[in-house]
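Worked example (supplementary).
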Amino acid sequence: MRLHLATKTGVLHMYVIIGRRKMLLSLIIIVLCISLVISSIAIHNLVFAAGSSLYKDGIIQWVDFNVSYEALEKAMKLDIESYGKEVKLDWIEMLAYCAAKNGGNFKRFKTSQLDNLAKQLKEGKTMEELTKDLKYYPYYLEAYSAVLSGFLGEFEIEVKDEASETGKKWIKKYGLKAFCPIAKNYYFSHYDDFGNKRDYGFTRKHLGNDLMGSVGTPIIAVESGIVEALGWNQYGGWRIGIRSLDRKRYYYYAHLRQNFPYHKDLKEGSIVKAGDVIGYLGRTGYSTKENTNNIKQHHLHFGMQLVFDESQKESNNEIWIDVYNIVKLLSKNKSEVVKNPNTKDYNRVYDIKIPEVEAILNQQQ
Ligand SMILES: [Zn+2]
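After joint prediction of all chains, the assembly is encoded as:
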């Protein structure tokens, strides 16, 4: 009887233990589920900072450009290698695909993801098929096109040729046609300082990338476009604003050199070609008084604003993106310059012909 009772108690005890374990297990599962839901909401909110207002009247309102350097470089390589092949890969589509898959977060990106995508496309799958269930693919495609569509393409460029009289010859190319904002053979350093705090005037976020270099370093037009702003601005000092020909990108080059900020040929409305010298590195700015050197360290502030609609250009909703990885990518393509002893200006050594720019220049003649 006692034995029986003991067994009964044991069974009861075991039942309690198993019950507790089950409860504990269910608790863990519930906690895990809740944290998963919370983190996915957090990621979603992080990616879509503007929440439901990603678009307004069909116009993109916000872009966080988080594409990693590895992804940019790999996608660009696949695009260039496929030029002239049966299946031409498009780096912007491929990057938009990766972004739509990973919620715009490239922290866990692996180049194998792009290799796999390239393989499927080469086997005959279409981007349309591959992206039909990716809700945010159209958003990323439009956003990344706005950032990158001026970077790759067909062009003609002069290269060194010792056999020719001029020492140069023209070649046709497909590839990177945008340039590093700092001229070839000039040192610069930078780090990802986008979003850091700035205190002049009012506390605000740093909306570009600072490239530290020495005074007078020739500054290069990253992409071809039209000079939209040239003059003094109390934050940027002597600065140049250049709008891309498709009007989607506004490039901002600031803190240019005291007394000699710009290439003398430039004025508002000028057409510049990617790789042209536009100005010189300095430390002007942080003053309402023109030509004041108030920035501590010589550097170029380089920024890119996206413009999906003209109303966004000067507004409370300006879309500036982090260009740090873009500058890293562009460092592969630098423009060599030479000084003109008469004008004291620097000029590019190797000229370029970009079809869209040539069309405009021909119209003007
Ligand atoms: Zn800056």
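Two points are worth noting when inspecting this output. The pocket of zinc ion is lined by residues 206, 208, 210, 301 (CB under 6 Å). Helices lie at 2-47, 69-81, 91-102, 111-122, 127-131, 137-148, 324-330, 355-364.
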